[in-house]
Amino acid sequence: MESIMELDDLKHAWQSLDHRLGQQHTLQLHVFRERKLDALRRHLRPLVWGHVLQMLFGVLLVLLAVSVWSQHLHQTHLLVAGLVMHLYGIAVIIFGGVMLGRINRIDYSTPVLGLQKQLASVRRQYVIGGMCVGLPWWLLWVPCAMLVFMALFGADFYRNAPAVVWVNLGVGVLGLLATWAFHRWSRHPNRPQLAKWLDDSLTGASLRKAQAVLDEIAQFERD
Predict the structure, then answer these.
(1) DSSP string for 151-177
(2) pTM above threshold 0.90
(3) Is the model's pLDDT at 176 over the cut of 70?
């Protein structure tokens, strides 16, 4: 009889110890997760400020474009250059706003798998927005330069040096084609390291660090 009671006491003690260990593990996981989520927010902060600056840059482009094309409605080259940069400035603002919205909608209370999916969505938007905003500069720096020269110095860049404008636009087209060809070449199955390096460079340091934080949380939960 005493032996049975001792076994029951041992069983209850073991269950109590197991329960306490479970509570301790849950508490440790909660503390670890909160600390890592703070790090995640900290890593995303430069991304937020970067896109705020991007939107301000877009506003400046719109103001510059309007200040030129509105005063040169009868000069086709300045009107076209102004309208192109006006539309581009709006696109820069939109892409920046969409990116800020994606980051702001991240729900840090969701499980780590949900956070990884949300971060993957942010990453896709970042890459798409970066390409849409960045690649056109192979060409758009030319009309931008035309607007800057007219706004600051009253000099008509195209009228004074039309050949320079067309040559640089041609170089821009070649640059876009070369960029596209290099991207296709880097995606060959025989170049996985190069493809990974390009993906990492397109993603940006902030998102790579944020992904590393989520990987740490997932590893801790598995252990």
Answers:
(1) HHH---HHHH-HHHHHHHHHHHHHHHH
(2) no
(3) yes
